[in-house]
Amino acid sequence: MPFLKLSVELLDQTYHGCGDGGSPEWPPSPLRVFQSLVASAARGQMIGEDWERALNWLAAQSPPTIVAPPHRVGTPYRASVPNNAMDIVAKAWSRGNETGKDAQPSTHKAMKTIRPTYLPEGSRVFYLWLLDREPATEVLGHIERLRILARQLVALGWGLDLVVGNLEVISDDAIDQLSGERWIPSTANTHLLRVPHAHTLAALQNRHAQFERRFQGGALTPVPQLSPAAFRRISYRRDWEPEPRPVAAFRLLQLDGERFRIFSTRRACAVAGMLRHITATTAQETGWSEDRVGTFILGHGESRDDSSHQPVGRERFAFVPLPSLEKRQKEGSAHVVGPIRRALVFVPEGGATDAIEWAKRNL
């Protein structure tokens, strides 16, 4: 099968892009690459309809596989940088003030935390989208326009993260020749990256229009951050990492909902039994069949009239009370196993995501 490959090479082998909360982002998110392509298309002009269609087509594709070199997050440091306050300087100059504090650009500084990501083993990042075996003529036109935009890329991450880009169609055999760690979309909720969707381009254009109008009416109207509705958050993992098992985690609370209901670890079996019972009752009330409740929740493969127990294996709910690990300080520091305050529900065989989501919603 053919793949669309977008390659980005960071010229300085460093990257400064940040994810949610200002944490270092690696690999660079598909949304960040898409924004760079949009900036390439809008350089000095409005984006034409053909270019919009090409960008919207790319944004509507499934999240790409990413091949990126190993990275090392550097030690953060603080630097004094310009505070983007030249409007204050200009006002001082317009009043004839050329020597006061406000008139000196060097006095308008702010401290900024910088934490680069280093790429000691290479600086090329590849984004791979699966294509149809025989792409339609319209799709080939989109690809050609995206190739032009990729070759006009300037930066990815901060403005100092200069890049060279390219885009081409390759075979699946050629993917094995790409150097780097392979990041693939995952069902876990761990390493989240921002990914565009079909309406991302319109959201970016709307935000840019707000930026251009920010001084209308004689007052500054701050431009909000890009709305979370303008993109998706997709979990990624390296292809050699195991797929995390989906679980439903619960706190055991008293009826007032404010305090923990604490159980001794000696009552672990009783806690598991109570959780299994309420799960079976809730499943019956929400329309589960008697057979499915018996096998998937209660673990009985036999019918109600059969006196001999038949195990159902690992494709069923498991109920696991969780003791607390408590740090207690007497002489030195020690962690001890405390009472049960929480519990997990999962399927030992793995998978069964729909059943786990049902447990999260209903228990």
Written overview of the protein:
The chain is built from nine helices and 15 strands. With 363 residues, the protein is of the alpha+beta class. It folds into three domains: 199 residues, 2-Layer Sandwich (Alpha-Beta Plaits); 29 residues, no CATH class; 116 residues, no CATH class. A seven-stranded antiparallel β-sheet has the order 9-1-8-3-10-12-11. Strands 2-7-4 form a three-stranded antiparallel β-sheet, with no helix packed on it. β14 and β15 form a beta hairpin. The longest helix has 18 residues. The model has no long low-confidence stretch (mean pLDDT 89).
Layout of secondary structure:
Elements: E1 2-10, E2 14-15, H1 30-41, H2 49-59, E3 65-68, E4 72-73, E5 77-82, H3 86-94, E6 109-114, E7 117-118, E8 124-130, H4 137-150, E9 163-171, H5 172-175, E10 181-185, E11 191-196, H6 200-212, E12 231-238, E13 247-251, H7 268-285, H8 290-297, E14 318-330, E15 332-346, H9 353-362
Antiparallel strand pairs: 1-8, 1-9, 2-7, 3-8, 3-10, 4-7, 5-6, 10-12, 11-12, 13-15, 14-15
